[in-house]
UniProtKB/TrEMBL annotation:
<protein>
    <submittedName>
        <fullName>TonB-dependent receptor</fullName>
    </submittedName>
</protein>
<dbReference type="InterPro" id="IPR037066">
    <property type="entry name" value="Plug_dom_sf"/>
</dbReference>
<dbReference type="InterPro" id="IPR036942">
    <property type="entry name" value="Beta-barrel_TonB_sf"/>
</dbReference>
<keyword id="KW-0732">Signal</keyword>
<keyword id="KW-0998">Cell outer membrane</keyword>
<feature type="signal peptide">
    <location>
        <begin position="1"/>
        <end position="22"/>
    </location>
</feature>
<feature type="domain" description="TonB-dependent receptor plug">
    <location>
        <begin position="40"/>
        <end position="147"/>
    </location>
</feature>
<dbReference type="Pfam" id="PF07715">
    <property type="entry name" value="Plug"/>
</dbReference>
<keyword id="KW-0813">Transport</keyword>
<keyword id="KW-0798">TonB box</keyword>
<comment type="similarity">
    <text>Belongs to the TonB-dependent receptor family. Hemoglobin/haptoglobin binding protein subfamily.</text>
</comment>
<dbReference type="GO" id="GO:0044718">
    <property type="term" value="P:siderophore transmembrane transport"/>
</dbReference>
<keyword id="KW-0812">Transmembrane</keyword>
<keyword id="KW-1134">Transmembrane beta strand</keyword>
<dbReference type="GO" id="GO:0015344">
    <property type="term" value="F:siderophore uptake transmembrane transporter activity"/>
</dbReference>
<dbReference type="InterPro" id="IPR000531">
    <property type="entry name" value="Beta-barrel_TonB"/>
</dbReference>
<dbReference type="InterPro" id="IPR012910">
    <property type="entry name" value="Plug_dom"/>
</dbReference>
Amino acid sequence: MNNLRILPAVTLGALCALPVNANTKLEEIIVTSSRVEMPLRQVGTSVSALNAREIQALGFNSMLDVLRTLPSVGVSNTGGAGKVSTLRIRGEEGYRTLVMMDGIDISDTSSPQFLPRLEQVLSAGIERVEVLRGPQGLMYGADAGGVVNITTRAPGEGFGGDVSAEGGRYGTQQYAGNLGYAGDTVDANLSVTDFETDGFNARSDDTLLRDDDGYENTTVHGRLGWNVSDALRLELVGRDVEGKSQYDNCGFPRTDNCNSEYDQQAWRAGARYQGQRFNHELAYSESETQNRDFSDGGFAFGGEGKLEKWNYLGSFNGGEAMRLVYGVDLKTESRDDTGTNQERDQDGYYLEYQGEFSKRLFVTAGARYDDNDDFGSYNTWRVSGAYLIPASAGEVKLRGAYGTGFRAPSLYEIGYNNGPFGNGVELDAEESEGYDLAISWFGNNGLYLEAVYFDQTVDQEIFFDLQTFGGYLQGKGEADSSGVELIAEWPLLPSLSLTGNYTYNDTETSDAGERPRRPDHLANLGLNWQGFDNRLSLGINARLARDAVGTDGDPLDDYEVININASFEVIRGLDVYGRVENLLDKDYEEVRNFNSSGAAAYAGVRYSF
């Protein structure tokens, strides 16, 4: 166990399924930074990505556990699978982060802060995830947490797919399948996942009922594409998620017999035209979410939310020295909280210039204008740059970005304060700004190293009054989050790879206190080996968190968690796999009085065709 304490010093992290290819790392295509495809060598912002093979190698059922292996990503979980969880990027709250699924904003407008419910997102059927860190008001209207962009499985040529079955501790079972077809004109993919677990006792202070708090999730996700011509493509995406969870400590009087039901139906229709110099994409998306909570079998509270978006994205290629990306976002959000109906619009317009000079210098500069029904207009902007320096053994990349953002108070925050039990406080929009500076090494031997310094602030931060429970208040100064990210990928041998990250994050509230549930130190360490002509894969990864405090200001648990996984291809297309999470059975709490999983083993079989 003592060896784990040096994780921040060695700055190594998340498990990688395959050795890094030095010739392709800089050419990896990134979409999320500017909403158009760009090779990594041109990107001046901070982006991390995992592909389907890496996600599958990690083995986690929840996308939250996958995401927490990436730099500067922290998660606070309240008692196991499906329980309310918060994802924080660079120390910012999850409701300041935009989460996209195949172009659909999956935020829950019925939740208090318009929160994306990532605890309801399973990893099965995911093709790729990109995480963009820092204020990203320019392209997305999102705030200081950044953007999580998730892409689901795309079909290969002809018919194909996979089916899998898995079971393990806590009565956990998961059945998943993907079926796809791709031809010259039409392609389609359907993914279905059914997950169920008995769970464990969610709260450590549940000493009377002491029941297991389980979770069920059924997710259906489909994509359909039609290549009308070489230039024109039409797409349709549909998604349905049903989640049921048991939890503790609810109702009046308090009880530990609590249940919640979550339902989200979402879809998106889009058309994309690719010309020689001009590209256009027009899409409409809609998501409806319903939450219902029950106490001792009786209805306690609930709400419904709806989010509608029209998006236009265009680009003009004027040569290496000039590329323009521009667009329009028209958004309508609404919620119904047991009879209280709220609705508002927000329209956004943006333009970004991209330039390339001498194949070494890449710059972007852009601005955005947003008009919100309740809070008026806001201007945000972002500039970034990347400069490549050739060296005999590789390339050095210097980059930096500065951006701003804003977040209008959610409909729930406004409604609560103006309700019968609210404090009547009138809230204003939060505004954010931040920058990062980085130096990276891309070695010809496959070694990749990066060091990043970041600093970002949120002005007039909105927070819930935990003293009187009278509603939401607003800080009078700036909340700050700054720190260092160290990232490494090292193919030690053709069959052996070592990768990792370490984040030091110093956070401060507007009144100079420490922001709760944000570890000062986060680190991941992973090692993967492949043998027998890549038929056998063995991996071990460890996660460390240090020096976080609770909402009461007292320290939370420091912890180190080790996970191991293995897979073996029995015959072509048939794999057996297994993993052990929390191998050393570490007992810790990420949120005060909420338990975490003990040592748990899982095994499964997967057939691909």
